[in-house]
């Protein structure tokens, strides 16, 4: 017996009663945002690790830096190996905005992708100028 089947039925009933927008308030709780990230901060740098599995075409991932925010867009597409029985790895198109703890330089960002992890290095901005910049991602060689 699938324990989540009853939850899906319950959700449909709630949608009918409260309307489709009812669940938007709980989106981050019920379904974690993708891509999942870890953010690390030092005095003048921020390092962000993004979990983006199954990406063969890194050109399909877009990063934008604008003052104190980072936007990550792309698609997580995992290969099918038959009929899906259980799904825990989030996949599909994503567009995630992340508020940063301090403004960063758009001209000094480094992004690398290796083994399903996108690593983004950002450096503190000293001035208050805002410029949204696209960041190039490069693939790291396998060791």
From TrEMBL:
Residues 25-140 form the SHSP domain. Coiled coil: none annotated. It comes from the Bacteria. InterPro entries: A-crystallin/Hsp20_dom (IPR002068), HSP20-like_chaperone (IPR008978). It holds the Pfam family HSP20. Belongs to the small heat shock protein (HSP20) family. This is Hsp20/alpha crystallin family protein. It comes from Salinibacillus aidingensis.
């Amino acid at each position: 017996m699938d324990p989540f089947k009853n939850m899906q039925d319950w959700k449909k009933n709630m949608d009918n009663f409260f309307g489709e927008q009812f669940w938007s308030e709980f989106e981050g709780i019920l379904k974690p945002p993708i891509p999942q990230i870890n953010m690390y901060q030092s005095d003048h740098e921020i390092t962000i690790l993004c979990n983006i599995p199954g990406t063969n075409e890194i050109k399909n991932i877009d990063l934008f830096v604008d003052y104190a925010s980072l936007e990550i867009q792309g698609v997580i597409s995992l290969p099918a190996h038959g009929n899906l029985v259980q799904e825990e790895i989030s996949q599909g198109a994503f567009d995630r905005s992340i508020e940063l703890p301090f403004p960063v330089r758009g001209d000094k960002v480094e992004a690398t992708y290796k083994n399903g992890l996108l690593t983004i290095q950002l450096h503190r901005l000293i001035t208050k100028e805002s410029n949204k910049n696209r960041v190039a991602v490069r693939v790291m060689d396998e060791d």
